[in-house]
Amino acid sequence: MPSDPILNEAETALRRVFGHEGFRGRQAEIIAHVLRGGSGLVLMPTGGGKSLCYQVPALCLDGLTVVVSPLIALMEDQVAALRQQGVVAAALHSELDEEGRRNIRRDMASERLRLLYVSPERLVMDGTLEALSNQPLAMFAVDEAHCVSQWGHHFRPEYRALTCLAERFPRTPRLALTATADARTVDDIRAQLSLDDAPVFRGGFDRPNILIRAAPREAERKQLLSFIRRAGDGTGAGIIYCATRRKTEDTAEWLRTQGMDAMHYHAGMEAADKRAAHHRFARGDAVVMAATIAFGMGIDRPDVRWVAHTDLPRSAESWYQEIGRAGRDGLPAQALLLFGAGDIALARHRIGESPATDEQKFIEMKRLDAMVAVAESATCRRRALLRCFGEDLEADCGHCDVCQNPPKLFDGTVAAQKLISAVLRTGQRFGLGHIIDVLRGKMTDKVAQFEHDKLPTFGVGKDLPEAAWRGVARQLVSKGALDVLVENHNELVPTEAARAILKGQEQVMLRAEVMERTTPAPRGAAATPAPGSDDPLFAALREWRREQARAQGLPAYVIFQDKTLAEIAFRRPMSMESLADVPGVGASKLEKYGPAVLAVLRENSG
User: Fold this and answer.
1) Shared domain check, 564 and 483
2) Quick one: 198 and 264 in the same domain?
3) Same domain, 390 and 447
4) Pairing mode of beta strands 200-202, 304-309
5) Residues in contact with 256: Cβ distance below 8 Å, sequence separation at least 6, in sequence order
6) 201-216 tens-digit pLDDT
7) What is the Cα–Cα distance from 273 to 188, expressed in whole angstroms?
8) Could you tell me where the beta strands, DSSP code E, fall in 158-311?
9) In this predicted model, what pLDDT tens digit does every residue of 9-35 receive, in sequence order?
10) Which domain holds residue 588?
């Protein structure tokens, strides 16, 4: 875009404080809009640089920038990072002691404070609003803005109170920011924050550095272990999302038996244990976190190298948000989704039985169907995912499992008819295991008890192995032709959609991979290398950083990100001036760490 005079100071701040030579994507456009006093909504993928859209204006505008953030851990990490860059910032939350609150009030009174991070609950307290009313304000930034919307995937009722900002501070710009929001969520955010007349800045949602995969859950632990060994080399962290609290604990325990440094995290843990687990993960160790979705929004760590899901997420929004916690530094990362027919049926039943309105149930069901379509996609998986956000790639991505190992499709109409017929003839009161026994002509006690060996369907499916029949059933459930009565021993029942299949009025194309017991690794799916992981100088810089982080009680990435250390190791600067040219080395960090970094380079040169 053409040079904008109002951006001169912003570009200077970007170089001096953050060590970057230029803005990315729509950052410059958004920052110029804010500097002119404008409000707006920013939709930008995780790792896309949303924070700079309000942090840079905060350094250029007169007055205090107030950042609304949902989690204490997230606020604390962001404040720590800003302080490392020489920015006066603070976080106001319920765990702050009286001395901490007094220091914030003092810095506000002296107008030294540039950014104040605050939880929505703390912000709307009368005392906080009153204090801000007497304070020169630059802007409000509402981070994780999807929490405002009842349609958002992490709706937080306390965010609704933020409607007061437009009423009490009508002249103060408001910038809402989120990584994921569909059209309905966007409309709701704009309505709740009085941004109906403000522009929406949409960045591309694509995260091309993340290799995405999905596979039927057949031998979960074997599949997980294979994925972890492919995706990481021990220098980065990973997250495994599980559907239940018990499963997080069992998974972490099992991983430890495999020699991995693993922890678990869920909402049922004691507050102190949750803080300790989050603290340990954030500090930069190469740990694996098995967690429910309660672990997520507070993750600001850039070097998570992989994310795995052992159960189907409830929407494409949720999945995108969760896998987006990998590769925030822009370096190679991987994501794996394992799912089964039971996941789909259970999710549908939970929506149907929820106390939500019919409208909300309809919307949630559509979101689930979109997620199922992504999971079962036989064409570019990334294109299927991005279409959920109204974005379409011009060509297949070439960086997902489907592109790297295109599945073969076969006409599965006859197989589908056999399975549906077996379900009907056995009385629609048995689970998949028994149905498969009937199809394959297996004489079990249950088959004999109910005389199902006398049915016309007995033995008609001997041509397919058990794993293949499970795949046929899963795909029929995903297509909505079969339902699973999860509340009644997982009985299979045909739906209205099965009628056209039985009559031969609808062709059923199935993925040929149902003929295999396990899903092979895509071609070229080698381990994701950490940047410079084979370079002893990079390793030495990481060790120096680890010691610095431990001494200061900070996450390692707050000192320098892996991407910056890898660039230093590659360039091998021998002076403060050349070190200052490395992206990510701002003036404050150069002064604080420059001599020590140069010493590491000298000690490990040659």
Assistant:
1) no
2) no
3) no
4) unpaired
5) 262
6) 988 788 889 999 998 8
7) 35
8) 174-178, 200-202, 210-216, 237-241, 262-265, 288-291, 304-309
9) 999 999 999 888 889 888 999 999 999
10) 536-603
